[in-house]
Amino acid sequence: xxxxxxxxxxxxxxxxxxxxxxxxxxxxxxxxxxxxxxxxxxxxxxxxxxxxxxxxxxxxxxxxxxxxxxxxxxxxxxxxxxxxxxxxxxxxxxxxxxxxxxxxxxxxxxxxxxxxxxxxxxxxxxxxxxxxxxxxxxxxxxxxxxxxxxxxxxxxxxxxxxxxxxxxxxxxxxxxxxxxxxxxxxxxxxxxxxxxxxxxxxxxxxxxxxxxxxxxxxxxxxxxxxxxxxxxxxxxxxxxxxxxxxxxxxxxxxxxxxxxxxxxxxxxxxxxxxxxxxxxxxxxxxxxxxxxxxxxxxxxxxxxxxxxxxxxxxxxxxxxxxxxxxxxxxxxxxxxxxxxxxxxxxxxxxxxxxx
Amino acid sequence: xxxxxxxxxxxxxxxxxxxxxxxxxxxxxxxxxxxxxxxxxxxxxxxxxxxxxxxxxxxxxxxxxxxxxxxxxxxxxxxxxxxxxxxxxxxxxxxxxxxxxxxxxxxxxxxxxxxxxxxxxxxxxxxxxxxxxxxxxxxxxxxxxxxxxxxxxxxxxxxxxxxxxxxxxxxxxxxxxxxxxxxxxxxxxxxxxxxxxxxxxxxxxxxxxxxxxxxxxxxxxxxxxxxxxxxxxxxxxxxxxxxxxxxxxxxxxxxxxxxxxxxxxxxxxxxxxxxxxxxxxxxxxxxxxxxxxxxxxxxxxxxxxxxxxxxxxxxxxxxxxxxxxxxxxxxxxxxxxxxxxxxxxxxxxxxxxxxxxxxxxxxxxxxxxxxxxxxxxxxxxxxxx
Lengths: 355, 385
Hints:
The complex is a heterodimer of chains A (about 350) and B (about 375).
Chain A: E1 3-10, H1 20-35, E2 44-48, H2 61-68, E3 74-78, H3 85-95, E4 99-107, H4 113-118, H5 133-148, H6 152-167, H7 180-185, E5 188-190, E6 193-194, E7 201-212, H8 213-219, E8 224-233, H9 246-259, E9 268-270, H10 276-285, E10 311-312, H11 316-330, E11 335-342, E12 347-354
Helix pairs in contact in A: 1-2, 6-10
Chain B: E1 3-10, H1 22-37, E2 46-50, H2 62-69, E3 75-78, H3 84-97, E4 103-111, H4 118-123, H5 138-153, H6 157-171, H7 185-190, E5 193-195, E6 198-199, E7 208-217, H8 218-224, E8 229-238, H9 253-266, H10 271-274, E9 277-279, H11 285-294, H12 303-306, H13 325-328, H14 332-348, E10 360-367, E11 372-379
Parallel strand pairs in B: 2-3, 2-4, 9-10
Antiparallel strand pairs in B: 1-7, 1-8, 4-7, 5-6, 8-11, 10-11
């Protein structure tokens, strides 16, 4: 049984001051309009996004589910980056749903994300270190740069390329181009990471309409198939090798196995580059670049601008997914891979899409 | 694909588990479920994890607790309020029903003892502009239900108290239950008022602990044990956001709609006749009465009589919450999974407070401000419909 994406809807990505269910509603409505179906034709709703401290309120699906149109319908929320909700949507469709909406929501402006993430550290060993997310990412960057002698300029060039891509994407949060000097002269957030080398938080929602194959063919003649999904977890404790991301490899292997494909067939990538170094490390973990050489990868990666241009905490992975799906629909590429991650670089989800 | 429960484990539940860390409590439940199924952790292919984070003093605890779940496994986190335990079970069920996995564990944990007061946390769930200032929490909402039901159907405080008497008697036979007290109607009526008309012994506690359920595909389930609990049907429903939009507090119409769908899928025409036992998410006495009526076990206005008449006692015609239910044990984000696991034990014939001859069981959870319901029917393999 194949599962396909038949509708995509985005809200604007930025800092939203209006009631957030309106933002979620915008994305859901646009996805339904894009699919040309009514809310009543959706039998299941899978939500993806954070809870409590991550969005400033608990049981966040209470306000997001009605906005998606889940009134009196089946609804479950995956509490993570929303790409992790894709496997559950896929499984729901394979077992008993005809049409499922995946609604991704990210509302990080409600909350100081760095402080919030600090609370995910165990109270005995890690929390007393006050190691914020940027500080941890900086440790990874330091390890990566030291291990492979990667020059700062090479990473700045990655940022420039991604910001160029973002400038071409009307959906992106950051659309201004930057130069290498801008990156290298931007302030240190946590050494050696500079401000422009890191993703900036924003808000936004994405909705996707997915359907089982026979139903999908009735809804659309331009379907993007979800061929494979994979998700994985890394050791929680920091006794890991900081210069690489083996859990990303693992999630990709699972997705490729399910898709019965290998890297050769993949024409485009959308990856969750929360830092310029992550951009390189993910490419290497996915097997598209040699270790320590991710910065020189010149393939089709993050044409959306990636997380470095749009990082709505909670919906970033779905933003990347939807951008890749749109490109496949337009015929720009026929097969692509999307990857996202969450936590202190601990969890990864990967999906393989095909036109 | 048919899916069955092949293992259930839980920790003892207490006000505060000071003896173990978050992942250690999870590990305790996992080991208990594995032991029940006769499996090892390496046998499990994927894990679905549920928790309501804000009570536990740690954000996204699945990250830490993954150390207890087997690091090589895909892990997915579910959180949907009070229904979390049941939606975690349903998500784990999807893992197997989809054909992607053969052996999957659902594990839920709550360490609400870390939280000074759960009600202000729950208050953050409601809309900050229209409803939050009212101080709404779970107790207040249940009090609305009790007041509305008593006014409409003439239920008395004594009617409600009998539900508490029944659950507390059942909990005495459950080695894992949190509150173990032999209480009579007068004890309930004389306990202090928490939110009128609900009194202390009519309100659930807050419990620390964890539960785990192992799901298997059909062939594997038959190999693992000779009495698996088959998942016959499951459903969830999501109502509108605002509490003020509920049509009535004297009836639970969203549960009635969900129940109708569930029974249709399960092939159940007469739930009162076809279902032998129910583990209901009755966090407050009034809620069991509303649930009995919404699910068709009692006619409208009759649910109030069931406990008093003994119908819902262990030897009655429609036994409810033989485990002692939520009124005696409430690890909020794990409570639904305890309902599910206890329902599975009943149809396996292995419950601590076993209903004689139980072949079909229903489990239920509600969440949000009366917004969500999750339901499942489990069977020992009895043909339904």
